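PROTEIN DESIGN WORKSHEET
SECTION A - STRUCTURE
LENGTH: 217
TOKENS:
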């Protein structure tokens, strides 16, 4: 398949899966037209890069459905000067989309092989404003906090307090909350004038957030 064919598939993905639903942010739509999603996937599943579904990557993990990436990204309303934290790097695709939209992206992945591969893909593609760290994202990235945006792409049963604490004044955090294997609640957390507010966005199904958060149950 040529680069032009792939760009056309991306364009179609954006029109039929995002714009036709409720993704209206021009900046988000443009970023998702641009990022070569297939390059974030193992070769064996690249033919599914632009379908309307999550796709298994490796280690029992998934690259989220394009619509969910669009929805989470639009929900945190990225601004060019923002600093963003992602917990759950996975393939690195969501981090690349954020990298197109904000100034700095810090992303944490608990599975070493995935962290290594995502770091390589992102640097091969020139995303110099995205830094990948291997580890448990439960404690966030205190040296780089506070963040204007925090995006958690694995589901905890309860939102880790250290992540809420690392949200800047005016910041937006989006997270799927709920037990493994059940419907979870995509939730927006904002901090305004010091007050933390939660808003329901929609029902979703994500892989669980693992590590320290699971010891708190
Ligand atoms: N954002 C990813 C992408 O664009 O490909 C998809 C993320 S996948 C749905 C969820 C990821 O969260 C998995 O790679 C999983 O290993 C990771 N994860 C789960 N618990 C974590 C934790 N405590 N800290 C960091 N990463 C975690």
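SECTION B - SEQUENCE
RESIDUE ASSIGNMENT:
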């Amino acid at each position: 398949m040529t680069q032009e064919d792939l760009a056309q598939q991306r364009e179609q993905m954006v029109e039929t899966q995002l714009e036709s639903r409720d993704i209206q942010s021009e900046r988000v739509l443009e970023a998702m037209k641009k990022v070569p999603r297939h390059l974030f996937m193992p070769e064996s599943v690249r033919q599914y890069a632009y379908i309307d579904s999550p796709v298994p990557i490796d280690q029992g993990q998934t690259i989220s459905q394009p619509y969910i990436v669009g929805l989470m990204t639009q929900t945190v309303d990225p601004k060019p000067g923002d600093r963003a934290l992602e917990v759950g790097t996975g393939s690195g695709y969501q981090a690349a989309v954020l990298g197109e939209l904000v100034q700095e992206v810090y992303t944490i992945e608990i599975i070493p092989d995935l962290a290594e591969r995502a770091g390589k893909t992102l640097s091969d593609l020139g995303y110099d404003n995205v830094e990948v760290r291997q580890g448990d994202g439960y404690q966030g990235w205190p040296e780089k906090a506070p963040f204007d945006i925090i995006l958690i792409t694995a589901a905890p049963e309860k939102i880790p307090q250290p992540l809420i604490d690392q949200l800047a004044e005016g910041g937006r955090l989006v997270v799927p909350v709920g037990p493994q294997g059940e419907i979870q609640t995509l939730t927006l957390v904002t901090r305004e004038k010091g007050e933390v507010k939660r808003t329901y966005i929609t029902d979703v199904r994500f892989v669980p957030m693992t590590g320290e958060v699971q010891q708190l149950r």
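SECTION C - NOTES
Residues 61-64, 87-88, 90-91, 93-94, 108-111, 114, 136-138, 153-154, 206-207, 209-211 surround S-adenosylmethionine (CB under 6 Å).
The domain at 3-216 is CATH 3.40.50.150 (Rossmann fold).
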